[in-house]
Every structure is written in structure tokens, then in C-alpha cells.
Amino acid sequence: MAEFKDKVVLISGTGGRLGQVAAQMFAREGARVLGCDIAKKRAEETCRRVREAGGEMASLAPLDLADPAHAQRWVDEAMARWGRIDVLVNNAAGIAIAPFDEASLDHWDFTIRNELTIAYVAGRAVWSQMQKQKKGVIVSVSSIAGHLELSGFPAIAHGAANAGVQGLTRMLAAQGARHGIRAVSISPGLIANPDALPSPTMDEHGLPIARQLWRHAALGRPARAEEIAETVLFAASDRASYITGTDIAVDGGMSSIIWNPRA
Fold first, then answer.
1. DSSP strand E in 87-127: where?
2. Coil, strand, or helix at residue 217?
3. Residue 37 carries which DSSP code?
4. What is the pLDDT of residue 262?
5. What structural domains and CATH numbers belong to the chain?
6. Do 168 and 123 meet the contact criterion of CB atoms below 8 Å apart?
7. How confident is the model at residue 154 (pLDDT cuts 50, 70, 90)?
8. Distance between CA 200 and CA 205 in Å, rounded?
9. What is the pTM of this model?
10. Exposed, middle or buried: residue 102 (CB in 10 Å: 0-12, 13-18, 19+)?
11. Rounded distance, CA 107 to CA 95, Å?
């Protein structure tokens, strides 16, 4: 039997690679998926792929989840279609890249808004419905940058925002426990993008030239989006019913092993 049969799953950022893969995998397991993204064409492509595979999915785009009115419209759409919300996957994110000594306050504000505030606003939007149901799961995609700073990756607020996502997860778990609501965060390292076009600035995994980062993973490669999405599905499932208030690193060992690539 499909693990998420008839469950309603809201996934943000379904126009991106990880959001698309997660939507496909949840739908394959029987979920009714409602996606959203600011990128309308890419979000529509995800819907098309899910439906062609026999899954059930709708999407709202363009939608800016850091805006409470947009987040409420997303929740209202799910309720109008299916009458409940079982899982929220906070996947959408955006960061501003700049070294600390060159960055402006706008760089900081953009990243905090689009990595941390966006998760807070979406969580607030689904909260009352999950309370009424006395059940729900909020899975937030964070980053290993919330655990350790990535040398050579000049995103000034990225680490702070993702440490905030992990703190937000703990708060949601603490306040949601009496309502049957679980909250878990997932921290990937680098994720390969096989859809990226060949470019002098890309490596063989479709990543910006970053071998010095992902080769510090004990497994010696970036993650596939499917490997991260599998963890998201597990955290959202009843198999993880006793897991809440914690972060799961899915980073090939980058945050836990001091790796010597010459060994």
C-alpha cells in the first residue's frame, strides 16, 4: 500500500530540482501534492511530470511564501481541494552571494527572508489546521551551513539563516508535541544538478566549481536530489513517528568527519 495514500502534502519550491523530485516521490506514494514557487514555468513543468506519471498534484505560482497573504492563499487552496493538510515541506530558499566585507544589509535581509522567514511564515499558515487535526508534520530543508561555515562559499547570512531554521524546528516540535505535530529539519551538503547546462563554471555534477567543498565529504561526491528527498519522505512518514525536534544531516559526512582527501 502506498505510504502517503490520500495524505495532503504541501511542498514549497517545486520549481527547483529538489522540490520537483520530492513532489514526484510523494505523489508516487499516493500523496495529494500542492506545490508552489515564484518560478511559474518550472513549477508547471513539475506538475506536468507528476500528472503524466499518474500522480495527483496542483501548484500555485508565482507565489512568495515569505508574504503571509500568499502563504494563507496556499493553505486555503489545499483546504478547498482536499480539506486537510498532513505534511508541510519547507523546501523553497534563496540566498544572496557576497563576501562579508563587500556585502550590504540588503544581502543579509534577502537571505534571512528567503531561507528563515519563509519557513516561519509557512509554518504559521498551516499551524491552526494541524492543531485542529491533532496531527501533522513539518519538514524543513536546512543546510549543513547551519552547523559549520563553508570556507570559500561567500554567502554571509546562509549559515545564520539555516541555524535559525534548525532552531525554528526545535520550537515547532516543542510547541506542537501536545497537538500531535512533529517537526524535523534536514541538512544536505551540496546537491548535484544533472539538469544544469554544460558551462566552464560548472563541474561534472552541474555544480558551481566547488570540488574543494564536496570532496571533503567522506563519500567523495555531492548528493543526488533523490537521496535528500528520500530522507524528507522518511521524516514525514509514520515510520519516523518518534523523531521530532532534531536535525538530520544528509551530507556524505561533511559535518561529522575530518576528511583528508590525500589519505
1. 87-90
2. coil
3. -
4. 53
5. 8-250 (3.40.50.720)
6. yes
7. confident
8. 12
9. 0.91
10. exposed
11. 8
Q: Could you give the CA distance from residue 48 to residue 80 in angstroms, rounded to a whole number?
A: 21
- Cell numbers standing for residue 63: 507565489
Backbone torsion region of residue 6, taken as left when φ is above 0, otherwise alpha when ψ lies between -120 and 50, otherwise beta:
left
Residues listed for the chain: 263
**Cβ(37)–Cβ(63) under 8 Å?**
yes
β strands within the chain, DSSP E: 8-12, 32-36, 56-60, 87-90, 136-141, 181-188, 246-250
Read off the pLDDT of each residue in 107-119 and give the average, rounded to a whole number: 96
Give tens-digit pLDDT for 71-96. Answer: 999 999 999 999 999 999 999 999 88
Q: What nine digits make up the cell of 159?
A: 549559515
pLDDT digits (tens, 9 = 90+) for 240-254: 999 999 999 998 888
Cα–Cα distance for residue pair 150/92, rounded to 1 Å: 21
